[in-house]
Amino acid sequence: MGGDGHPYAPADLHLPGFVPLQLSQGQILAPYLGTSVFVVLAVWLVSGRCGRLSKTDRLLMCQWAFTGLTHIMIEGPFVFTPDFFKKENPNFFDEVWKEYSKGDSRYVARDAATVTVEGITAVLEGPASLLAVYAIASRKSFSHILQFAVCLGQLYGCLVYFIAAYLDGFNFWVGPFYFWAYFIGANSFWIWIPTLIAIRSWKKICATFQAEKMANAE
Amino acid sequence: MGGDGHPYAPADLHLPGFVPLQLSQGQILAPYLGTSVFVVLAVWLVSGRCGRLSKTDRLLMCQWAFTGLTHIMIEGPFVFTPDFFKKENPNFFDEVWKEYSKGDSRYVARDAATVTVEGITAVLEGPASLLAVYAIASRKSFSHILQFAVCLGQLYGCLVYFIAAYLDGFNFWVGPFYFWAYFIGANSFWIWIPTLIAIRSWKKICATFQAEKMANAE
Questions:
Q1: Distance CA A154, CA A142 (A)
Q2: Of A146, A174, A212, B56, which residue has the fewest beta carbons closer than 10 angstroms?
Q3: Beta-carbon-side half-sphere exposure of residue A172 (alpha carbons within 13 Å)
Q4: Helices A112-120 and A143-167 meet at what angle, rounded to 10?
Q5: Comparing C-alpha atoms, which of A152, A155, A169 is closest to residue A111?
Q6: Does the distance separating the beta carbons of B167 and A115 come in below 8 Å?
Q7: What does each C-alpha distance from B80 to B16, B84, B110, B120, B130 come to in angstroms?
Q8: Is the dihedral of CA A190, A195, A198, A204 positive or negative?
Q9: Is B13 among the domain residues?
Q10: Residue B1 above 60 pLDDT?
Q11: Chain B residues bordering chain A (beta-carbon distance below 8 Å)
């Protein structure tokens, strides 16, 4: 237990007015995972009725809906609620970030790099992810370049997030469980999934330019 | 004049071992601008002998050569020389960053967000910019998506740079001249130029997908 009655590391982190967590890990994870599964299933089923969409496109729509809503609904409240850890009547989203801060206390400490990356993610990448759901469904010509752009933003954000943590001392977690489950585990989805989608979109774009070149050469 | 004999703001910034600037502003700017003009002219002239390259493509090659070399040669040394401000025999690049720090003391203070953005810029975007020179010259099918990717990286970096400065107190310059000339002026080139190039590449990519769609519909 650190100073000011908070559970975070490092113990000398100063958090005047900290209000202890009221929800358990299960009470926080279950609604988030439950809602996510519901969203993914709903997008999967609805996209199946659109006709002509490949399974890969439908899977991508599920991913973009999930990640877009996470950026807006989960990361958005963190960005715009600087006092979330001292609210007397915390809501679900305040509790999410008090729990996550066990894996990275820069959240509760309002570290500038962390708030900046979360701000860009919530305000720009969140809406852009939802636009990607629409772009895939309606086969827009900007579908691949949009998906590529959002993926690159997510990857750049993760790079800043991890490198800044390293430069700032790499001591923001309560213990190995929170380091691996929250700091590494939860964030890893925003590394390998955007990497795979970015490579796919890059290849599709190159292939289209290649086909155009061939057509012009004929 | 701040603490430890340094000229930076805020005055309470602690910089033990600081070695004062030995070059004047002119002695720092002239070689950088001179070399940049030389590089741009050289790329312009050589690209004119390649044949078939439009003036826009040649201009873009000049820009990518200039920005790539700036990322690698100017920003690279900053990233990998943490003690640049205390070196007894500073080289040109150490002096560049001691001068620039008058417009943003987070450089000399080794602020994590600033070093992170500069690191990504020097290590990833620098070589990628030089690759863009080659990609344009040899009309590679990945030319537009590569240029778009580097532009997005530069824009994301500028966003982090400015937003983190705002969140951290926005008090890192010696006075209005250094704020406008260094912090705003010098960085503005990495906002409006990447914005223009990114929009151009986005449009080219969409047009190519549109043309493919039309061809398939025929």
A1: 18
A2: B56
A3: 25
A4: 170
A5: A169
A6: yes
A7: 19, 9, 11, 12, 20
A8: negative
A9: no
A10: no
A11: 110, 112-113, 115-117, 119-120, 139, 141-145, 148-149, 152-153, 156-157, 159-160, 163-164, 167-168, 202, 205-213, 215
- Mean pLDDT for B187-216 is 95
d(CA B132, CA B66): 11
> Is B20 buried (19+), middle (13-18) or exposed (0-12) by CB count in 10 A?
exposed
Q: Number of helices and strands (H, E) in chain B?
A: 9, 0
Which of B156, B167, B206 lies closest to A145 in CB terms? Answer: B206
Q: Say whether pLDDT at B52 is over 70.
A: yes
* B15 belongs to a structural domain: no
DSSP state, residue B21: P
Give the list of residues 6+ apart from residue A60 with CB closer than 8 angstroms, or none: A132, A136, A147, A197
Calculate helix-pair angle for B55-69, B143-167, nearest 10 degrees: 50
- Interatomic CA distance for residues A158 and A183, integer angstroms: 11
pLDDT average, residue stretch B29-58: 95
Residue whose token pair is 């740079």 = B161
Name the one residue in this structure whose structure tokens are 């005055």: B11
- DSSP at B9: S
Cα separation, B108 vs B129, whole angstroms = 26
Beta-carbon count within 10 A of B59 CB: 16
Counted domains in chain B: 1
Considering the domain boundaries, does residue B159 fall inside one?
yes
From the list B149, B164, B212, which residue is nearest A112 (CB)?
A: B164
- Cα angle B1, B119, A163; round to 5: 100
Cα–Cα nearest to A142, from A152, A132, A151: A132
| Terminal C-alpha separation, chain B | 72
Domain assignment of residue A131, given as a range: 25-216
ipTM for the predicted complex comes to 0.95
Residues A150, A129 contacting (CB under 8 angstroms): yes
Nearest CA in chain A to B148: A149
**Which chain B residues are Cβ-neighbours of A164 within 8 angstroms?**
112-113, 116
The 3-state DSSP class for residue A196 equals: helix
Residue B20 in domain: no
Give residue-wise pLDDT tens across range A109-146: 999 999 999 999 999 999 999 999 999 999 999 999 99
